[in-house]
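Run folding on both entries below.
>entry_1
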Amino acid sequence: MGKSGYLDWAYLVVAISITIIIFGVITTNIQEKHILEEIIEHDKEVDLIHDRIEIYKDILIGTSGLFAASEKVTMYELDAYMESQKINERVPGIQGLGYVEYVQGQEKYDELVLEMKEYGFDDYKIKPEGIREEYFPVKYLHPNDFRNQRAMGYDVFSEENRASAVQNAIKTRDISVTKKIILVQETETDIQNGFLMLMPVFSKEDNSKIMGLVYGVFRINDLMEGTLSDRILDKSHVVLYDNGRDEVFYDSRDDHKITYLENSKYEKSINVGGQTWTFMIYDDGIPYNNDEVILSIFIIVLGAALSVTVFFVIRMIGKNTIEMEINSQKIKFDAMISHELKTPLVPIKGYVEMLTEPNLVGQINEKQKTILDKILKNINHLETLLEKILKVQRHEMGRHSWKMSSVMLSELM
């Protein structure tokens, strides 16, 4: 293989490499475009959760205003207020909205139990049982379904996470949210994680005296799946962590198995009533559309076709160059035979013929004449050989001229 042969193969390797690089760059740009689109979409989904939480906060603040503006809010008044708000229709995802009352001392304890019996809750009692300095039992909870009935009378101050959120709400006089808990509303089936959102209510007469807390009850699966779009729940793996990355609060997949491309992991944290919620959204792959797939295939096919085509063109040019070089050498060879070999034979032949003529140079003996005949014969043979070589060369170079004439077939026989 000559030098030109190596060059055309080198071009083919370089051209295909460039095609692969261009394909990689375009594919990377498509991936980055989709990743950016995914980030924007995931931001919107997380914002949906944040906005929904803000709506619930506004509802709690409005409900706390109802208690703050009244001497006493009855269960019927609260139910009527809740019905007018149409909470489950406007912002689904909440298990219940109610009120926990601050109870201190046995007298207040007995008054609460008696009041609840007047509402028809004959079995009402503060749970868990036991004598404590203060209680925050559930007094009202809307709607009065079978799950919420299980929570009636439950002392939210009896459990550490709930008590911490109660204390924080009273201290900050603002919305406070518990860490991940299991609600007392849960039964033996379809158990979900949950949380409480609490807003303190203070006395009209003494603004430093706590009266109770308006609170919302949330089952996290109901909240997330009632707020997030079906698209993200179907195509992505959504994991919510409570308290930074310490606790898995919600997982959109039952198997809890996380599989994803490294560049398709999304993370964002939001503050919810003093708690840090961290969203991790994993995507299984880049969703290429048909146009992008066609473009990628087109680039590969076009690049390969152009590379191979130019490769053969270069090979053809190289081949023609070599042939031209060979022809050039043949022409030089032709000239060399004509001028360097044939030309010297002419005078030699002439002198030999002169020596055989007695009238020109005098008489020669038979031996001399025999030698000169042999020389002349060899000269004629060499001329014939050189002429044949030149004819073959002219024929190969297409420079042979043919002379057409009529002949008798009998002469060829």
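>entry_2
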Amino acid sequence: MPNFVEVWKFLGWDISYNVAVEFDDYRDRYYWIKKGIHYMEEGFRINENEPRLIQYIGWVIGNKLGTADERLEYRKLFIADDDFHGTRPREQRDNWLVAKEYHARALEILDREPERKATVTLLLFFSQSPMYQMDYAQALEEEGTFGEKARTAWLIAGREWRDFGRRPLPSSLGREHYLAEYEPLQQQRALALQRLEELTPGLREQIREEKRAALSSAERAAIDTPPEERTEDEMRIAVTVEENKLRVMHREVATRAPEPYREEAIKLAEQIDDYDARLFALSRDREVVNFEYWGKRADLESTKEAVEARRLVHLGLRAFDDGELQQARSLLDRGYAAWRKAFDLQGGRFHSLTRENEIADDIGETFRVYYRIMQLMGDEGDFPPEGFPLMDVAEDYRRMMISQGMAPPELRQ
């Protein structure tokens, strides 16, 4: 059925993934990946107002060519593929940029035919383009391109991520919201709560004590017992009591405010409840796309310090591969020092990123090389050595690897 989009997607995926993998030579696999892409393009010519299909073609171009084990070879073949690109300028032929191009065509369809927004998950759909830009920036650095080109790629990614955060999205509350409004809403909620407490000084705690007095002796005993000393029954009772019997609702406080302030207090309580509902809906959507992490990650990676850190570490790993141990260690030392400067920028705003798996794993994998260099150079000291600039990253990486049961001996100390 030519108008069944999922059929075109499935068969195109089957060719690009399952048929292609049957061939040993990566050039043959690349040929069949393209065959799957061309098959889906044929489907799009029949369904030219269908955003899901053109968006999926871009996804295959990005992810199949950009994340496979043979991605370095695939990306080179793709850039050199004049038959596929036609007149597309060579500097725009990166598979991640072409994926963005296809995604932009899908966005144009949604702008032209808004009723088709119901066919896609808008939260994920709108996040895709800036994520392709981040994938492009990461690919540049993985392949040894640094300096202003890499930094500019990250700057564009950060800008596009912030634009995504300002894009209206449907929420579970039945109204639109913006991912970037989370922090301003938190501030507004804090001000409203502060004003409510000013109008009702001590009242919230008074109501809680009244509720506590109405508890049974078993309930009071459970909540009075330190959490670490509670029995299983006491833990269950304490959780139930705290949530259902001791919790003081904002409206409870507001309705007992002094008469001159009661109307204002009730309005504030309603506002706070509304803020809470909106913040909860926002937090769920932000978690789906890891909004805070990727925004902060793009800001970090676009700094001169981070780009230089990646360049030095990249050169250090190459020197190790070439057997230049002293040079490798020197370059890695300089790279780690540059990372320290990057993480400490803006008053330590980026410190939390050292605890994220992707960053800790990325930098942490190079620690194994560093430790091997120490061994080959006859340095029998522990890792990390004294004065190591990334002690926190090394510790986070060690904990992560131990928790996954994957820590090498040098990290089990």
